[in-house]
Amino acid sequence: MPRWGMAADLDRCTGCGACVTACHAENNISTVGPYQAMRGRAKHWIRVERYWEGEFPDVRLKFRPVMCQQCGNAPCEPVCPTYASQHTEDGLNAQVYNRCIGTRYCANACPYTVRFFDFFNPEWDKPLHLQLNPDVSLREVGVMEKCTFCVQRIKAATIQAKADETELKDGDIKPACVQSCPAQALVFGDLNDPESAVSRLSESPRGSKLLEDLGTHPAVTYLSRQTQV
Amino acid sequence: MDRRSFIKLTAVSGTTAALASCGNPENQLVRFVPDEDIVPGQATWKPGVCPLCASGCGLTVRVMDADKDVVRDGQAGVVTIYAAKKLEGSTDHPVNHGGLCTRGQASIQVTYHPDRITQPLKRSGARGEAKYDPISWDDAVTELVGRLDALVSAGNQRALALLGQARTGHRALVVQQFLQRFGAPAPVRWEIFGDDLLRRANALSFGRAQLPTFDLANARFALSFGADFLGTWNSPVSQSHGYGAMRQGRAGIRGAFVQVEARMSQTGANADRWVPVRPGTDGVLALGLAHLLMAAKVGAPDAAGRAGALIEGWSAGLPAYTPDAVEKLTGVAAAKVERLAREMAEQRPGLAMIGGPALAHTNGLFSALAVNALNALLGSVDQPGGLSFTPQFNVAAAAKAAGPAPDAGASLEELAAGILAGGAGAPQVLMIDGANPVFAAPKAWRVRDALENVPYIVSFGSFLDETSALADLILPDHSFLESWAENVPESGSAVAVATVAPPAMAPLHQTRATVDVLLDVGRRLQTPLNLPWESMEALLGITFATLPPSTEGGDAWSEAQEKGGWWGALPAALVAAPSGAASASTVAPASGFAPAAFVEPQFDGDPAQYPMHLLPYASTTFYDGSAAHLPWLQEMPDPLTSAMWSSWVEVNPTTATKLGIRDGDLVDVTSAHGTLQSTAVLTPGIAPDIVAMPMGQGHTQFTRYATGRGENPASLLAPLTEATTGALAWAATRVKIARAGDPDGRLVLFAGGKNEEGRHGPGEEHR
Amino acid sequence: MTTVRPSSLLALVACACAWLAAVGCGYIDTTVPPPPLTGPGLPGESRAVLTTARPNLRAALDDFLVRRPEPVQPIEFPHNIHVGKQIACTEYCHESVTTGPVAGLPSVRTCMICHNAIATDRPRIQQITQWRKEGKDIAWQRVYGFPAPSHVRFNHAPHVRAEVSCETCHGPIGQQTVAQRTVDHTMGFCVNCHKEKQAPLDCLTCHF
Amino acid sequence: MTRPSDRQINSDLIRPLLHTSWRFYLLVLFFGGIVLTAIGTWFYQAYSGYGVTGIKWPVFWGFYITSFVFWIGISHAGTLISAILRLVQAEWRRPVTRCAEVITVFALMIGALFPIAHLGRPWLFFWLAPYPSERLIWPNFRSPLVWDFFAINTYLTGSVLFLLLPMIPDFAVIRDKSTGLRRRIYGALSMGWRGTPKQWHRLETAMSIMAVVILPVAVSVHTIVSFDFSMAPVPMWQSTIFGPYFVAGAIFSGIAGLIIAMAFLRKFLHLEAYLLPVHFENLGKLMLVMAVLWGYFVFNERLVTYYGNEPAEMAVFWRTQRESFAPLYWTMVVCNFVLPVILMGIKYTRKTITGCVIASLGVVVGMWLERFLIIVPSLGHKYLPYAYGIYRPRVLEVVIAGATFAAIVLLYVLFAKVVPIISMWELKTPEHEPGHGDQAPEVQALREVQP
Question: What does the pLDDT read at residue A228?
């Protein structure tokens, strides 16, 4: 049984935001428009955080892509009264839309604030809807949604491998963000496979987890940006 | 009541259509027979070409079935079509290596945009009123042909003008041939962030009038003068790929990267060190480094050869550019300059790039030549870890297009002036192909007035923007997914590339490929132009057939259609002339060029009255504004400010405190040419005497998503141009800013805090 | 009452003041959404919107109570006859079922492959031939399939490969004329089968 | 002071039931109107989508949860207090108990509505309840919300019983004093109460059992409510102190609520003879104790955070101490601590009903603020600064939250219309007065029956 994980190399990440749009395109995330965005309803399953350091002229900027960390010990799971937020065998934090009744407790419990709520029924001005990905549900009003590690791609690849009676190879599965990243800062794979690229990166001395001390055991490793100047 | 809270009658039908799940409303649906056999629920992957910039990234398009609403003979219903679902970078394409930038990802929305022009339109209202009536293709083409015939019969062929974007490749060839054979002047190419100046400089220094390709992957040291090469400049995806490899691609080696610019760009944010420099003095710093490098015997003056010879005092080792002198001119501490030189000397191979704001000054050419000379001195030209020039596939030669080499087109400024001057030479018919100068050109050029004086304007655009809203006739083009797409990348690849892709899906609307329309018009003129090609497809067939197939006895054309292009070693016959027929600018022989020396850049506006420099920069999301109509990009948080759906003015905190401006306050930005009101964003990453604004917002006419949103910095620009090349010096305007009021919620931020330990970060109070 | 009026008045005034203060200081969000898009656009410009909202309260109630009206097919398609003629379901009509998630409802094009020649005298065949002429497809209605709010991503192919017979989920379709909903696709139904066959059971197997 | 005669008691306390003045209708009309508006508003919210509220990313809880905690807190006025008083046989409790217990029941009912009102898909609220479904899915028993559900239901049931039991004899009295339909209704309600010694004995036993049983439930309820917060890894939420802190706060606000209610009843139903200043004073003393206790808890919570100096927690700490939330915070401190400690500390003000009421009003406001300040600043200021945010309620939320105050008044008015707001038989059997203690209760009950 695999344990899906990701590694984000902050030394490669240029903060260009390709992953953000790729995620919107893959996962049918609706745009909420300027007014709702102003009211804090914009949904970005993955976001590129930026942090300023220092004052002019000695300024530095840090980029950090943050998506659901698919915690091994996820705070969002125990608090959900209906099992809508639930742990799967391959280590994903499932968000089961049809079980969600919208208590938004999980979003409060999530220390990474990567969960997003559908405040209204999502809308697409036709014919933009022709782009929608039929492999992913359209969420409805009152449910919580978040990064799934592109579970639809994981499932598709697994089923295909089974059909072809082959083994899944490392790199067969690429979530939309990983696939789009121009600088190849994101790597996805099976953490239980010691040979996989992501496991090797997770062992890197540069590696660390986000908010590690909260004991959430994230599946995402961040490789720190180096400074030699 | 909120529009979103209404329950739409279109709802479940659409949902079920999109999800192929069950639903009662299918009862009411009329289904039409699909035009092809559709296998539902299964994805096929087809090649594509990204249309949004000149880089020409290769795409892999995911195509699946979808139910499209149609009205056939008055009856509304749905028909199943094959629709593009997702764009990915094509993994083995030599430019983007599987990556795709945020704009490229969003470009799929161009095809499905609700405000896309669905059929030929004829103006019914007044100019610019954007009132149009539908018209059939036949009538439309006939009308255009009539206009052109009129010019011919009047013997006034030169009164036909075409205004387009700077693009190379087959489409450009057809356009150019069309005009040449008609007897019209060469097309007017204009983009505010166009790089003709750099092409010119490269032509002078290296005899290659094209943008350079950087081998970052093998570089140990990269020095960039204002070039936003990871975001918007040149071939960003290719360069990002190289950048990733430079940082972490080699065991034990991590390439260093220093960015020289006055406002921290998304690229600058990734630099190991960010060196702010006085506007327009980048060249001086480059020469200062060259001076030290030569002094340190890293390279002999003559090593720079022709590129060096173009710089005054080069052979003497640039005595005028001592660190102290450089410090005086650029404001960069002498120590920093020396340290930089040391690093460049130690960490080889290294390369220097210059682009964007660094060249947008009245002395831009000097800066470019200086950096070129620095590169030459480092011996990084055509070397691993240096810069090179992608061999250009000579489309014209491959297509056996007769006629002399095209002359350089007039500049937009000249065109506008010509029209306003009137007279016989003034254009009677103007074709607009993708350019939107009314939005992006300086007011002082009076482009809008000029266009309003043109008797007849034809636009091939897919959207109604400020420029095409003035058109009398709109002949909407296919989207890049619906037609033959092609691109001959000018840079970004080590080997020669020609990208091509067949239509990924059937046209959604009543549109036609512009190239085919032009060819059609050419045939239907009273005196036909005899363009030798039946259609774009035919042309592509001819050109690609000339290329060597990858396999023995193979066929390059069919191979190219499968893998989405051709790349490899070009036969000498097909390599474009070094002068670069691909580019509009021509090469002056090095001898006939007086060695360049630094002259103080000129700025528009009295420093006393307008104390600040205005820096309009290419937005990571909208580039120059041509992508502002895509909702995904509108809602994508800007990398540095996290702003969505809005525009802003970046101000240094110390300056802001002086002027009593708090984060989010409204500010008036005033130049000698106009004023606008926007929201202040305080950021430490900008020099105290500079205010920066992203281009892209402030459209008065550009679909429901961009119209009337934010402000357009171009409305402040002065018409200053670079002394030698006449390129617009868009960073040479002085402005003043003043607080205009409290935050009014027009600035939409996604982020809260600005600093990691940002407890008291002002962003905390965002509304 | 008379005795309490002053105090109650005082309370009311206090509330009013508090309210005004709150609104004045911007502690209460009183912004109003922009008006919906109006006015004529360009010819052919679309104003339609796709949403997951139910068309009306009735439909919402139906979803809530998992009520689904029996489908009414445009023509009485006799499954039994075609199956009887040894026309394999998954080879001609629902061909994508073995390779992909969706079984696919055959277009009239498919029908006409045979019925250009076969049984052209039957009224039903003449009916679809007529439609074909008009460029109209047969608006089949799904008999099975999961409602949108259940967020089920069902994929036929793996089930076919696992040799789950069509009848298991679609009932004795071979004996039916028009397909009837004979099996109730509740979650329990799926889960039990998955339990028996040791197929994966976590939510993400179907819901994503 | 003279104690009113039993006959006097009956006439005084049953009058409001038998005669209805125009004021009653006016009150019902006024408050009923407000409540209906709120209900309408809530339906609008459910229909349009939750986005019509001010809730946003990242502050996903706001006014509704605040009101939820607040009302559950208020509910600790009655049952708990009267149970304690019964057990310690505090005689002065007699006129107080019922109007106290009523508050519990109504406050719980209102409080329990908020978790439903705040759901994104309220029509599915029943998924919180364990019921056999074909999906074979039960609620997640690890989730505090599910335990809220159980705790509140238990407490509500208990409180209703606790309220109903001692009503039976009074129902009997009303039954005997009324005619026609009313007589039949009260007859049914009094469950054939005849006042036999057996019945009296059973009643007393039941009461004492209930009193003992209800105590742990009451305490557990607000402890569980506090788990809603302390179980989530949110700065300033994950605190071991929350259990007792919440319970103390709950009782605190409960007493305040009770004092206010009593004051109003006293005025409207002219019960000056029964609700004496001494009752207020005693409750005031209780409130003083709780105020000090509350002060201790808050001080403790803040001090521990300050010394712990955990960055994320300090961010929230400063935000409430001296940044955007400081005004609310210090208002809370004044209302919850300064005001009550002064007013209730000084004998003079404590002895005046006005003093008690003013202090109580302060406490009610303060406790509402306390809950708000526990929830919102932390959520808006979690670990990653990029995800900081500011929550601003929309008018709609304010209306719904505010209308609940109208709702409790309305319920109270209606209740006082059908049940004597003071337990008559308890008034009539004050063991402490000689000459009455020897009389068996049933004798009096019988005596009442004869006109």
Answer: 65
pLDDT for the residue D135:
67
Residue with the larger pLDDT of the pair B157 and B407: B157
**pLDDT for position B165:** 84
**Which of chain C's residues have a Cβ under 8 Å away from the Cβ of D134?**
186-188
- Per CB distance under 8 Å, which residues of A are interface residues toward D? 36, 39-42, 47, 49-51, 66, 75, 78-83, 99-105, 107-109, 111-113, 116-121, 141-144, 211, 214, 216
Q: Residue B766 pLDDT > 60, yes or no? A: no
**Closest CA of chain A from B316, distance in Å:** 32
**pLDDT for B252-291, tens place per residue?**
899 999 999 999 999 999 999 999 999 999 999 999 999 9
Question: What integer pLDDT is reported at residue D84 of this predicted model?
Answer: 84
Place domain B3-112 in its CATH homologous superfamily. Answer: ADC-like domains (2.20.25.90)
Chain C residues touching residue A163 (CB < 8 angstroms): 157-158, 161
Chain C neighbors of A129, CB-CB under 8 A: 50
Domain B612-765 grouped into CATH 1.10.10.10: no
Q: In the structure encoding, which two tokens stand for residue D351, read together?
A: 């002895």
Chains that touch A (3 or more CB pairs under 8 A): B, C, D
pLDDT in tens, B118-134: 999 999 989 888 899 99
Instruction: Kindly state whether residue D415 falls inside one of the protein's structural domains.
Output: yes
Checking B243-247 for CB contacts under 8 A at 24+ apart, the result is B243/A12, B243/A14, B243/A183, B243/B216, B243/B270, B244/A9, B244/A12, B244/A182, B244/A183, B244/A184, B244/A185, B245/B216, B245/B217, B246/B216, B246/B217, B246/B218, B246/B219, B246/B222, B247/A9, B247/A11, B247/A12, B247/A226
Class of domain B213-388: alpha beta
The ipTM (two decimal places) reads: 0.91
**Percent of chain B scoring above 90 in pLDDT:** 77
**Span A4-223: which CATH code?**
3.30.70.20
Domain that residue D47 falls in: 6-449
Q: How far apart are CA D185 and CA B327, in angstroms?
A: 99
For residue D264, the chain C residue with the least C-alpha distance is: C4
- How far apart are the CA of B343 and the nearest CA of chain A, in angstroms? 10
* pLDDT at position C196: 92
Q: A152 touching C, CB under 8 A?
A: yes
Residue D25 domain flag: yes
Question: Residue D4: is its pLDDT beyond 70?
Answer: no
What integer pLDDT is reported at residue B704 of this predicted model?
Answer: 93
User: Given a cut of 90, is residue B407 above it in pLDDT?
Assistant: no
Q: Which fold has domain B121-192+393-574?
A: Rossmann fold (3.40.50)
- As for how many domains chain D has, the answer is 1
- Mean pLDDT, rounded, of chain B: 89
Question: For residue range A19-32, what is the model confidence (pLDDT) as tens digits?
Answer: 999 999 999 999 99
Report domain extents, chain A.
4-223
Report the distance separating Cα B166 and Cα B209, nearest Å. Answer: 14
- Could you give the CA distance from residue B195 to residue A49 in angstroms, rounded to a whole number? 31
Task: Please report, for chain B, the start and end positions of each structural domain, with discontinuous segments joined by +.
Answer: 3-112, 121-192+393-574, 213-388, 612-765
Q: Per the domain annotation, does D1 fall within a domain?
A: no
DSSP letter at D437 equals: T
